[in-house]
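Hello,

Our lab assistant flagged a job as stuck in the queue for most of the afternoon. It eventually completed. Since we weren't sure the result was trustworthy after the delay, we are filing this so someone can double-check. Below is the sequence as submitted and the structure that was eventually returned. Let us know if re-running is recommended.
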Amino acid sequence: MKIGVIGVGNWGHRVIGEYIDLKNEKLIDDVYVCESNKKVLKEYSKNKNIKTNNDYVNLLESNCVDAIHVCVPNILHYDVAKTAIENGVHVLMEKPLTKTSLEAYKLIELASEKGIVLEVGHIYRFANIMRKLKRMITEDYFGDIQYMTFKWTTKLNSAEESALKHVDIVWDLMPHILDMIHFLTDKWPTESNVLRNGRQISFLNLIYDDFLVNIELSWTTQERKRELRLIASEHSAKVQCVKQTMRVYENGKENDINPGANNTIRDEALNFINSINNRRMLYNSHIIGARNVSVIEKILQDDK
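-- returned structure --
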């Protein structure tokens, strides 16, 4: 299998590294890197494990790749995915799937017609800590969930700010959080309200059938956090989502649960490859990605 990575920002660079490792392990045949920035592409051309291209249309129309992992800005997601699907190329799209639900469902229809795998990069559902937490919820360890809180904060440096200057923080960070909640509970919110200060700070309250969620999003906070707190009728938990650690609060006692951090990018890539081979989209299908986009649209519409 030949896989291309389209877009070489900070995340694309990390993704490329994982596919190179998979090639070295002979789990895939070739890695292509596609990037319009010729200076960046020149550096990758020095790597003997990589083949390069500076035009994604040319790459997709030339039958060079069987599948692509797309890491371009959100505004380009639909065009890149549509071109890939029309040329019989499978797609793993970084979140969000598209900028609008209309575009998302158009891609789903096209992928279905062409028999193409279309998946979305909801990376946290591949984390061992999230899967452990989901098992604990399913086994009713916590009891009835009452509410969750998420703190997704950081301070952007100048390069990050430049890269995200046209991106709203809700579109950038909420796909992760919405997907985590859905992964853990199989539920979507019924109501929402948003308090915002420009595009860099947002506080959101989501109402679900039987629990509440409070979310803090910030690109102006010095302390970087990716934290989830779950409060339930029997026990509670605090999860560090990147470090993949969890502290459980039980009858006045605190216990640390550590299932071991895994390489989520690698596991997501392997899942994509298995999905193509088996034609079964496990864990991060296009339907989940499209619903995620629809919910964010509604949240922002309700805010107007």
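-- support follow-up --
The delay was a queue issue, not a problem with the job. The result is valid. The longest helix spans residues 286-303. DSSP finds ten helices and 14 strands in the chain.
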